Amino acid sequence: MTEGILLIYLICIIIGLAASFAGSLVGMGGGVILIPSLLFMYHYSDAFAWATPQVIVGISLITMVFTAFSSTVSYYKSSRIHLKIGMLFLTGSIPGGILGSWLNQFVNADHFSLYFGILMIVLSFLFLIKREKRTENDTSGKTPVLSVFVISVIIGTISGLFGIGGGAMIVPAMLFLFGLSIHTATATSMFVILFISIMSAGTHIALGHVVWEYVIFFIIGAWVGGTLGAKVNQLIDSNVLEWILRLMLIIVGIRLIIEGLM
Asked: How does this protein sit in the membrane (predicted)?
């Protein structure tokens, strides 16, 4: 095995670890880091010629399965996940994820990337609005079932289409629709992303969008990064975590806007 191949494998592990750590920390999955990182390597290194856009989305979703699984295990042990709300989000996000993965091979999403990027930046500023906060197990009040279903279908479709997990919309939705704390919202988001990613990744595998030679190295990084991100999340103050999430949303938005304008 040549040193060049070993270096490629090491880069895959590092990208997987960094993406999964950040994704687990704020409940966004990690695709926001993994996808632009691989796109950069694809454009500027012949060693990553295998990383076509469709392959990158497929690898991102498989990586997120293991990111979300390791995160969910850690969050579940610390009783951070709101299972009732998580299951409600899954009603639309799973079929949406399958739809988005199928649409990935047909849709030129450049303009959509531009508008979605602007939406992410707008969402980041919503955190300036005062909102009702409830206790973690409070299920009082009318649950906006139809609103959650529509949002979750959109989230799942975006996840399958772009491979970004959907957490950029899941966490704000949980914060503003249910008044969850940032810690519970991020934990529950990773629980939802686990199932979205499984369904979406399965579709991409069936479509042949996965280069298995490299996937295992992203998985190694994802497992470690996802576990570390969940543990660090529990040590960070809620206000600090909200600012980190806002920053991540702005980064997502800028990246998508640039992608949409290119």
From this structure: Multi-pass membrane protein
